[in-house]
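Friendly challenge for the regulars: who can give me the structure tokens for this chain first? No prize, just bragging rights.
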Amino acid sequence: MSEVMVDGCKIWYEVAGEGETMLHIGGAGFGHENFNSVRDEMQKHFSVVEFDLRGYGLSDRPEQHYDFDVWADDIAALLHDAGIESTHVHGSSMGGMVAIKLAAKYPELVNCLVVSCTSAKSDAMAKARWRVWRELGKAYGTDSLILAEEICTQALTRKFLDGPRGEEVVGVIQGVLTRNAPVFTFGAASDAMIEMDLGEDLTRIKAPTMVVGGDEDILTPLEAGPQGIGGIAIAEAIEDSELNVMRGIAHTNMLEEPERSVADIVDFVRRTAPVAA
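First reply, four minutes later:
Bragging rights claimed.
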């Protein structure tokens, strides 16, 4: 495990596995644990960089303004500290939003880009959802069962949540939120997602990109409302991109179909990664 100081804030990270480098960027409440279900398998194919965004998990948690520029700048400093000149990047949910900003702002750092279950601008329904999450976190705490249940009912398919693992997963999510998401940061991240507009960033991305989305995702849907930018529009805006629609999957593709999620990423990188000079 390693740490890098960025503007007085400790950012925790670790690197494990073999092969080309792959950076994982977790979602709004989950830190590096967002990738628990695929980490071991990914490390068979990549040298995986796990880290916690400023404000989360094992990194420092200052009460400050948070936005996607702040997080992208931290990642650039982390990669420099680790001696990584460029890397493949996989961002999930809010991590996909951070990944979009990173690839647009620091194109030289990103070889291939994968964004899973994400959006580039929240529509009215998404903004309302992020406000509900923010207020539940404030009222009950991010360690509360009620917030975990709310997130699970929005992120998982009905079939999965009503199945044999449903109750267990709610408990797992509650534990992950407890360890990784302080109330202040969770609220600030909700505000960042409410306010974001990454439309212009999409046109600046030069890396080959795979946009992954579940056709039952109601949080970051493939087709957002008129005010939003969902998965389909993201893929259309990035010049060198492809859309990977996972049928029967909601917002948690790595949890519901971990094997396919890894296989699709490995295949994409092998097909599209730039050849080193």
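The mean pLDDT is 96. Residues 2-120+199-272 form a domain with the Rossmann fold fold (CATH 3.40.50.1820). Your move, everyone else.
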